[in-house]
Write a structure and sequence with these properties.
There is one protein chain. The protein folds into three domains: 86 residues, no CATH class; 154 residues, Jelly Rolls; 72 residues, 3-Layer(bab) Sandwich (Phage tail protein beta-alpha-beta fold). 32% of the residues are buried. The longest helix is centred in the first third of the chain and has 14 residues. The chain starts with a helix and ends with a strand. β4 and β5 form a beta hairpin. The protein has six helices and 20 strands. By secondary structure, the chain is an alpha+beta fold. 23% of the residues lie in helices and 32% in strands. α1 packs across α2 and α2 crosses α3. The strands form four sheets. Strands 3, 4, 5, 6, 7, 8, 9, 10, 11, 12, 13, 14 and 15 form a 13-stranded mixed beta sheet that branches.
Length: 318
């Protein structure tokens, strides 16, 4: 994670972030509000950078955004302040997206903290279930001219039918378009793959500049911005499109490091790997969320032939 934070910090400093990198960077800043380890890494990234940040807004040594005096950035300032407060659940973001001209589009949204899930209804009647540590943003006039949302994290959508206005979900450089269906998208910052799983209906996944794939009910696909990792969509039970919604934790050949990140969000605990290579091991397992962090970790240790210890509030797998 340290190397990734340094990379994102410098990309932000140079005004070179892609939208996905931007969302990942701000998600880390939000996480830093209640994670001392992440806050320390952000400070280290700042201290190791010999050049002063020259973006219009930048992160100081405390992991906070600074706005140079005299700049006419009132709207941006409001947006960034909202994005940095982890306890804010509904805020106005004015940074992304922009309309066809250069004017910012007024945004609103909701977000969840670690251990928290939430159900909400969008103005068009679409039902959304937000998983832990996730953010959903959309225009204040959502549903009038377009139905477009921006997701960082994981959410299950039951989209209201509208034959004339498609529903579009942006997750970094990947977009998913539907007219009316139920499906799950998993796109947490730092996660290599965006995972789309469809319960019913049909969705179109756009990735890269001109590439796309179509999924129907009972199919799952792992996508990266440049390509689709799986050659073809694979079949799943419709109940497995969003098992977290029913309190189940289901992993099918996922990297141990990704599963650990998921458990940290779900149980709000700190977990570390003694050997980084261990994080690359693929794991398939299933258990109930309510068994708790320690029982879940013991299952993972048994599957990876490793041991679990707890010291100073941090679980260590070695």
């Amino acid at each position: 994670m340290e190397e990734r934070i340094h990379y994102l910090f410098k990309r932000y400093r140079d005004n070179a972030c892609t939208r996905q990198e931007y969302e990942e960077f701000f998600a880390l800043l939000q996480q830093a509000d209640h994670d001392q380890a992440v806050r320390q890494l952000i400070r280290q990234a700042w201290n190791s950078d010999e050049e002063l940040p020259h973006a219009e807004t930048y992160v100081n040594s405390r992991g906070r955004l600074v706005h140079p005096a005299g700049r006419q950035l009132r709207l941006v300032k409001m947006a960034v302040a909202a994005a940095l407060v982890a306890t804010v659940t509904t805020a106005a973001w004015l940074l992304y997206p922009r309309s066809g001209n250069t004017d910012p589009v007024a945004m609103t949204g909701q977000q969840t903290a670690r251990k928290e899930t939430r159900q909400l209804t969008l103005p068009d009647g679409t039902q959304v279930w937000l998983n832990t540590a996730s953010t959903l943003r959309y225009a204040e006039d959502f549903g009038r001219k377009a139905r477009t949302v921006y997701l960082s994290g994981e959410a299950y959508f039951d989209v209201a039918q509208d034959g004339e206005m498609p529903f579009i979900i942006h997750t970094g450089n990947i977009s998913t378009t539907v007219l009316g269906t139920a499906f799950n998208i998993r796109a947490y910052p730092g996660q290599a793959d965006v995972i789309v799983a469809v319960s019913s209906g049909k969705v179109k996944v756009q990735y890269g500049k001109e590439k796309s794939a179509t999924l129907t009910g009972g199919q799952l696909m792992k996508v990266r911005p440049e390509y689709i990792r799986d050659d073809v969509p694979r079949s799943i039970a419709t109940k497995d499109a969003a098992p977290w919604k029913d309190g189940n934790m289901l992993y099918d050949g996922e990297k141990l490091s990704d599963i650990i990140s998921d458990l940290e969000r779900t149980y709000d605990v700190r977990i570390r790997l003694a050997r980084p290579a261990l994080g690359e091991e693929p794991v398939s397992t299933e258990f109930r969320r309510d068994i708790g962090a320690e029982a879940a970790l013991k299952i993972l240790c048994k599957l990876t032939d490793s041991r679990l210890t707890l010291a100073d509030g941090t679980y260590l797998i070695h």
